[in-house]
Amino acid sequence: MFQTFEPVSDRSFAGKHLPLLREEMKKQGLDGFLIPHDDEYQNEYIPAYAERLMWATGFSGSAGAALILMDKAFMFTDGRYTVQVRQQADNAFFDYVDLMETPPHVWLGENAQNGWRIGYDPMLHTSANVKKLKAAADKTGFQLVAVTENPVDAAWKDQPAAPLTPVKPHDLKFAGKSSEEKRNEIAAAVAKAGADTALITAPPSIAWLFNVRGADVSRSPLPLGRALINKDGTATLFIAPEKVGNELPGFLGDDVDIRAESDVAAALDKLGKQGAKVAVDMALAPSKYVDDLKNAGASIIGMTDPCALPRAAKNETEIEGARAAHIRDGAAITIFLHWLDTQAQSGEIDEITAAQKLESIRAQSDMLRDLSFDTISGAGPNSALPHYRVSTESNIKLERGTLYLVDSGGQYPDGTTDITRTVPIGEATEEMRDRFTRVLKGHIALATMKFPAGTTGHQLDMIARKPLWDAGLDYDHGTGHGVGSFLGVHEGPQRIAKAVNTQALKPGMILSNEPGYYKEGAFGIRIENLIVVTPPKPVEGGEREMMEFETITLAPINLDLVKTDLLTDGERQWLNDYHARVRKTLGALIPAEIKDWFEKSTRAL
What we know:
The chain has 19 helices and 27 strands. Helix 10 links the parallel strand 11 and strand 12 (256-259). Helix 4 runs parallel beside helix 5 (127-140) and helix 11 packs parallel to helix 12. The two termini are 38 Å apart.
């Protein structure tokens, strides 16, 4: 099994660890220390050694920060973790702050006292973030201190070691474009920006650029490392020597120099002494790297990671791979949905058993390499926690009269999947069916959108929320995130959310379509499929070409939760057409003994 269900933290962490941390802070003359939920690579999911925020606070969510002062402490989380942070980070030690309304730099700008020494680890904060912190320091007079030793690391005596998993080639039949082609493409962008070289610090970009994959990060096939890509297409890949097998140098070729990651500092110093013009993404690169380059004499050119957009706009091979992965994955999900609709209706099955059952079905495919994230297996009130992670402490049964929400995905060499389905255990209430149908209406509205070139996900977000807004309802997460190609299940720069995002949607981008509704303490609903942006094409009688979304996730949407009188004729037709496509595409992969159930679950309304 890929997943384990023992708690990774508990409420006692703060009481045990904050005194140790404050002792180290005192040694360094600090009045406060900032702890982001970030590693040195700005990964979303981070290796065990980098779980500094969890060690200090007990909070195990994937986004947040803490400000530890000598006599008090503050936890910053967004709307996804409003309940979880209060369960895990003891309020005897922490005040809770909304991360979106008052991020740490804003809090410090409003509350820090003149003369305070606030420490930060310059490897964990980007230049863009440090710029905001410095502006706050200028406003209130506190001193921002870049530490040379992270006090969390000094206090954390049993901190795990950094991972050293092998880096492996990613076959061209899955990548669709050679590393040489990609390097030449990126080199041209670097030259156009007026730079001699670009510093690439994001592991997904490194994996994409060099057509390699790793296993340094759970649920994401990423190799941790850095790279320099020069304007002539040559490159240096910095990774730990222990990760380099015999096949990697030959696979990458003579134009890629493989060096130890510990050599990055010397390479940056050399660039500076040469007076090189270095392109850096200030929102991704550690501020220490930028400072080192400047101090050594380099000219910094601010440039968005040049790999991000071409990585996000999948080529045809990657799109075909995603379609194939979703057929394979959809069959596994469908078999699991049958199990939920039959054996799990007893009221005796629990959340962990359900998650294990789904993983065991997925694992029957010899193509499965990992899950794309830990399964969100939420029953009853736990389904109302959008990013719930079941553990042996939180595990409850799928009781009759409740809803069960399962959000899961797989990592396959040809694609990354992410799907959410909500099913009733026993009879659903009218309120549940009303809310489910409104979520479905929003899902269909987004799935059927036509939009011109230049449209952003921000502009489309409200279309998925309108049926909920009409009833005075909403949800506190984005409607869609980008998804990688055998990479991270969350990928930028594209997204569909209330928050302003200036990135226009491009053909080949894969996103999720996942509106939801959550009634705290009662139930949660989410319907999620992945969608691909299609190339522009003429609209009959129209004047401008329009792009659309192709839905690539294939699995039944629960029909017992649908109030058909709330659907328009067009919405009913979309649902019927979708289920007809599910039947046709997955039919040959569905076991004979559940075919009757499958036909019923995809019937036309």
